[in-house]
TrEMBL record:
Name of the protein described by the UniProt record: Ribose 5-phosphate isomerase B
Keywords: Isomerase
Gene Ontology BP, a term: carbohydrate metabolic process
GO terms assigned for molecular function: ribose-5-phosphate isomerase activity
Length: 152
């Protein structure tokens, strides 16, 4: 089923972003490339915030965030309570991020993952449904930390 997907990166992940944009468009997805569009040095938080805003505003159903390690941009995306970004490095973590955490964004590190593994992560992320049930109350707390209880 085609989806509306936003993708953003920093300069370190430009080649991976380009490959994933082409790959997802070939699958029929509606891709919004939030940049950057050349190899000039940029700051990953700027692009992470743009991606999170696209999710929060409903412009995209899912998001792909990329930087050198995937760490920095995932932190930036997660500053927005509407976004649930998970750093993934293989398909199982992408699957569990969807099933257990209802992740709407995955982050990957271009310096740490190859193109084929990144495609496999994207495939699993886009085809896995949220498990709901016992996971729902936990996911609800991710966007509403004031509802979390102190553990014993």
């Amino acid at each position: 089923m085609p989806m509306r997907i936003a993708i953003a990166s920093d300069h370190a992940a430009l080649a991976l972003k380009s490959a994933l944009v082409d790959y997802m468009r070939q699958q029929g997805h509606d891709i919004t490339d939030l940049g950057p569009h050349d190899e000039s040095s940029v700051d990953y938080p700027d692009y992470g915030y743009k991606l999170a805003a696209a999710i929060a505003d409903g412009d995209a159903e899912r998001g792909i965030a990329l930087c050198g390690s995937g760490i920095g941009i995932s932190i930036a995306v997660n500053r927005n309570p509407a976004a649930r970004a998970a750093l993934v490095s293989e398909p199982l973590s992408a699957q569990l991020a969807r099933e257990h955490n209802d992740a709407n964004v995955i982050a990957m590190g271009a310096r740490l993952i190859g193109i084929e593994m990144a495609k496999a992560c994207v495939d699993r992320f886009l085809t896995t449904e949220f498990g709901g049930d016992r996971h729902q109350r936990r996911v609800d707390k991710l966007s509403n930390p004031q509802n979390a209880k102190e553990s014993a």
